[in-house]
C-alpha cells in the first residue's frame, strides 16, 4: 500500500511540474491591458464558517466554503469542520483517519458515535459515501480537495435527505464557463508532512470541465502515526441549452492510516493499519425555468475499507479484514413555483447498498461473509408559502413528509413542519422534523458471523427514530454584524442494541432512548472592510450523561485580517470542555467511562499574495502554525496529539 501511494505521489509530481512548465510568460499577449480589479465590499472571507442558511422549510444548514478551508489550513474533513459550532472531531494522526475505531470521525451535536452503525451519513455530490457493512463513515473516503464547500446538516431534514439524523455533504467544484484556470500548490511541514495539489478547469461553450488531484503524507508525531492520502477527481459538463444542462462527476482515492496505539502500551496492542479506496461516479441531467427547476441523477459509489494486522481475541493471532462496499441508485428532485410566494418540492430517492468481506488469520484460518443487500425507496414532498412582504413583515408556513419503503423492514413516514417569521433584518424560524434511520448491514453481519446466537432477531428490528424540535433567531445589523441563536431538542427512540442474557439467547431489540438538548450561537462581525471576526458557542445537555462526544461547553473563534494590501493573517481558536469519548456500544446497558480533559487550541496562518509578471496569474506563500501554545491534549485517552507544529507552502493560480 505505501509503495502504491508513493507511485501516485510521483505521478502527481510529474503533473505538478508539467502544468507549471505549460504556463509561461508567452501565454500573455504582448501589450495586454492590465485587468481591472474591483475591490469587493469585504476583501476577506468570513472566518470558520461561511454562514448558517435557513431554507423556505425552516431547515438550517451550516456551510464551510473553500475560503474557510484554506484559511484553516485544512487538509481533511476533520480540520475543515474542527471549529464549526455543534461539531466535535476525533483523530489519531496528523494525516489519515484510522477507520477501524474512532480514530477519524466527526460528531454532530452528539450524533455519530454509534459503531457499528451511525446516526449521521456522509455524501459527495449528494451520493452516499461510507462503509456499508459496518454502517458508519470513513473520513478518508471524503477528501476536501474537490469540494467547493462542505454542508453540515445538524438535524433531520426529510425534504433534502433520508435514512439519517444528520448529514455532511461535499459539494464539488465547477468549471469556469469560459476560459482556463489552473491552481498548483505544494507544502511541507513538521513530521515530514508533504502536500501536493493540482487543479485545472476550462470552459468552451457549451462544454466545461474540471480535473484535479492531491497527495498528502506524513510520518506522524509518534511512532506508527503515519498516513497517506491520494485522490483524483473530474467534472465534465455540457450546456444543452439555456435551461437544460448535463454533467458527470467522478472521484477516486487511495489512502492508509496506522494506529500508533496507546502511549506506553506494548506494540502488540496496536490496532494495525486501515486502508480505504473509493471509486465514485454520478451523472445528472438538470433544468432550470422560471417556475420549475430540478434534476435526475444516477450514481455508483463503491470501494474498500481494509483493516490489516488487527489483534483478535486469541493471543498471538492477528487478522486482515477486507471489506467491500457498494451503493448505487437514482435521485430525482423538482422545485416548483406555481404561484407568487409559493414553493413546492417533490422528489424521490432509490438507494441500494450491499457489501461482503473476507478475513485471513495468521493461524491459517479464513472467514468469508458473502454479503447481503438492502434497498430503500423514499419519495417526498413539501410545500411552503410566504405571506406578506419579504422586505418588511412576512410569514412562511411549511409542511411535508417522506415515505420509506424498505426491502427488509416495515415502512415509515417522516413528517416535518416549519414556520418562518421575518421583519426587516430579523428572522425567527421554528421547526419540527422526524428522522428515520434503518438498521444497516452491520446487524446482518453480527447475527451471521460475530454473534451467531443472535440468529435472525435482526429481522424483527424497527428503524430508529429522532424527533427534532428547533427554534432560532437571526438578526443582521447592516453588512457589519450577523448573529444567529438556535435552541434544539432531539428525542431519540428505538435505538437498536444487543440484549444479552439472562435469559438466553442474546437478541437484537429496540430498547434504548436518549435526549439531546442544546443551544448554539454564532456571530460574524466586520469591524472594517479588511477585518472579519467570528465567535461561536455551543452548549449540550445529554441524557444519559455519558453519551460520547457531547462536551457541555464549546467555544470557537476566528479572525481574518488583511493588512498592508497583500498580507493576510488568519487566527482560529477553540475551547472544548472535558467529555466522554469512544464509541457508543450497541449493547444494552453499556456505560461509557473513558474521558478526555478540556483543552484550548490556538492556530494561525500568515500569507502573502503577489502578482506574477504575466497574464492574470498570481501566487501566495504562507506559513501555518498549529497548537501555538503547545497544549497537551487528547481526543482519546492515551493518544496524545501533536504539540506546536508548522507548515510552509506556496500556491500559484493561472
Characterise this structure:
By secondary structure, the protein is mainly beta. It has one domain (2-26, 49-653): TonB-dependent receptor, beta-barrel domain (Maltoporin, Chain A, Beta Barrel). It has helices at residues 2-22, 66-71, 77-81, 441-450; strands at residues 51-54, 60-65, 87-91, 104-108, 120-124, 127-128, 147-153, 166-172, 179-189, 193-204, 207-218, 227-239, 244-258, 273-288, 292-311, 318-336, 342-361, 366-385, 387-388, 393-406, 412-423, 426-437, 464-477, 481-499, 507-528, 531-543, 553-563, 567-576, 579-580, 595-596, 599-611, 618-626, 645-653. It has a 22-stranded antiparallel beta barrel. The chain has a six-stranded mixed sheet with strand order 1-2-7-8-5-6. Strands 3-4 form a two-stranded antiparallel ribbon. A hairpin with an 8-residue loop joins β11 and β12. The longest helix is centred in the N-terminal third of the chain and has 21 residues, at 2-22. The radius of gyration is 25 Å and the shape is globular. 44% of the residues are buried.
Mean pLDDT: 92
Number of helices: 4
Question: Quick one: biggest sheet?
Answer: 22 strands, antiparallel, barrel
Q: What is the class in the CATH system?
A: Mainly Beta
CATH homologous superfamily grouping:
TonB-dependent receptor, beta-barrel domain
Overall geometry comes to globular
Which architecture does the CATH hierarchy give at level 2? Beta Barrel
Structural class, by secondary structure, is mainly beta
Number of strands: 33
Provide the domain count.
Answer: 1
- What is the CA-CA span between the terminal residues? 34 Å
What would the CATH topology be? Maltoporin, Chain A
Radius of gyration, in Å, reads: 25 Å
- Helix fraction by DSSP (H/I, runs of at least 4): under 10%
Share of residues in strands: over 45%
